[in-house]
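From: lab user (bench 3)
To: helpdesk
Subject: output format question, protein + zinc ion

Hello, I'm new to running complex predictions and I'm not sure whether the block I got back is the full result or only part of it. Here's what I submitted:
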Amino acid sequence: MAFKDILGNERQKKILRKALQKDRIPNSMLFCGLEGVGKKSLALVLAKAMNCEKKKDDACEVCSPCKAISRDNFPDVMVISPDGNIIKIDQIRILKQTAYLKPMVGQKRVFIVAEAEKMNEEAANSLLKILEEPPLFSHIILVTHNPDVIKPTIKSRCQILSFQPVSREDIEKILLEKGFGKERAKIIALLVGGNLKKALNLEWEEIQAKRAKAWELFLSLLKKEKVATFLKNYVSSRSLRREELEEVLEIFSSFCRDLILIKEKSDIRLLMNPDYAEVFKKTENFLSLSKAMDYLEKIDYAFYAMQKNLNMNLLVTSLFSNLIS
Ligand SMILES: [Zn+2]
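Helpdesk reply: Thanks, we reran it on our side. This is the complete output you should expect:
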């Protein structure tokens, strides 16, 4: 993998390549952003570029360091991942001991701490010291999708690079390149909220089941029938899974957009859920255009509020009462 293989995040790639050209890659870095946007892959490309024998600001993919790093078999590049669900102090101790030794075969030592939010207190404290004054030949890249739980003392010692979700268009394009059908690519891209890794791993049957369930819920809210199902699923006392709710709201939002297009007699090729066109048409009798727009606004607001980390239970309760009012 080289820079060109990491999709989206052009600005972030440019920053890193410029720094490579000037030999100014920071020694302590924090890559943060949603899951599945390529943070760890980019950290690996950076590790290769720093050790590449042919290129200064990219991985050539053919020299022996590039190849060895791809095979996870290069002594100067170490990836540290949680042991079970935790990154333990022993793992950080090994990092620290090694970081002070000159590279064995490469030009730079690179340590990639994946899921850095899983460092326990001891491990995080232990890491602090080396982040303050890493040796010039060692680079530590922390990778996390949840920077909020990383200690401020760690963050303040790192150069932070924030990643954006991969755009829906890019995900759709990649899926098409991988041989997915047009309709499937479009639907999957819609569902994954910018998470490319998830897009590539979702099972089609699972997606269909999720959409069918979401449609049933959506319809019950529209018709104000059997609304208890929604309550039972999303406003009960059980802890809500954020990801699950995000998915449902994404699907709801796409239903609303499609229903508006149908109402406006637009080309059905524009639909996000083209396979639901006939089903949508059957809602004509009980859904006005203004109601669909109102729904879309409320759902999009709930989505926005969720990104802002507002209390989930409160948010769902208020969305629910807004939708059935
Ligand atoms: Zn190379």
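A quick orientation on your result: The longest strand covers residues 138-144. Let us know if anything else is unclear.
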